[in-house]
Amino acid sequence: QVHQVESGGELVQAGGSLRLSCAASGGTISPYAMGWFRHAPGKAREFVAVTGVGWGGSMTDYSDSVKGRFAIARDNTKNTVYQQMNSLKPEDKAVYFCNRDMNIARLRTVAKDSWGQGTQITVSS
To answer: CB neighbours of 88 closer than 8 A, spacing ≥ 6?
Structure first.
């Protein structure tokens, strides 16, 4: 099983930008859809972004709350997925996690039963 380690979370002012990295170990990420999720205090874990690459082509999707501000990208040669986060808002404060699944639609449901430590993003206004 592939495991991921998230990094890049910091304290940032509203309107600022961050770039998160998710470094995978235990195998190549090439067969997997990769996604970003977040968990804020008092709220359920939620989907943020996904990217899938396979014989059928590539696909990306974003939650409505981050469309136009966040961008997910992957570098399969480095077994790493990134998330560029622009125009950050206080509402974006959360612990951000990455995860993977062979099925991008299933990954989108936030149904994974194994999560890493995540990386904390704090946005100050």
So the answer is: 12, 13, 14, 15, 16, 17, 18, 69, 121, 123
Along the chain (125 residues), what's the average pLDDT of each consecutive run of 10 residues? 88 98 91 95 95 72 96 93 98 97 90 92 96
* Phi and psi based region of residue 78 (left: phi greater than 0; alpha: psi -120 to 50; beta: remaining): alpha
**How many Cα atoms are found within 13 Å in the side-chain-facing hemisphere of 40?**
12
- Residue 105 is given by DSSP the state H
Q: Which of 23, 28, 54 is nearest to 119 (CA)?
A: 23
Backbone angles phi, psi at 59, to 5 degrees: -150, 140
- Please tell me the predicted confidence (pLDDT) of residue 59: 84
Please list the residues that pair with 124 across neighbouring strands. 13
Q: Which two tokens stand for residue 4?
A: 């991921």
How much is the pLDDT for 54?
58
Q: Give the residue among 40, 31, 48, 44 at the shortest CA–CA distance from 98.
A: 48
